[in-house]
Amino acid sequence: MAMWTDWLRVSVVGLVALWLVLGGAQAHGAELLTFEVVAQDGRLIPDTLRVPAKTRFKIVIRNQGSDAVEFESIELRKEKVLAPGVTSFVVIAPLKPGTYRYFDEFHPDTGQGRIIVE
Fold it and tell me: In Å, how far are 4, 51, 58, 61, 73 from 104, measured between CA atoms?
């Protein structure tokens, strides 16, 4: 009887470990929700991103202009400088519903945008 109990205990622990490994691998391998912003001629396109609340996401920034840009959000504490032709990204932690501004610090008059978290 003791062998049967030990075997059952080892089997349950093994199945739980396998379930955790597979579940962890699936969660780790899941693609991050991604949005794209193009910086061009002093503008950030699109100027509005709508994202779900409480969801981690990535913003890919492509500088297709002829001069440098600085994608920045003071509220989100994100900042990224890109030379012409460069693509980079920032990852945003889950947010509460609301509106968060982003802008191109090198083109503050025209390079404005917002993230609407719904």
Answer: 67, 20, 17, 11, 9
Tokens 């981690």 map to which residue?
A: 56
Closest of 102, 62, 99, 69 to residue 83, by C-alpha: 69
**Res 17 pLDDT > 60:** no
pTM for this prediction: 0.74
Helix (H, G, I), strand (E, B) or coil at 23: helix
pLDDT digits (tens, 9 = 90+) for 71-100: 999 999 999 999 999 999 999 999 999 999
For tokens 């609340």, the residue is 53
Q: Average per-residue pLDDT in the chain?
A: 86
Asked if 90 and 35 count as a contact pair (C-beta separation under 8 A), the reply is no
Selection from 8, 67, 80, 3 nearest residue 41 by Cα: 67
Q: Bridge-partner residues for 60, per DSSP?
A: 36, 89
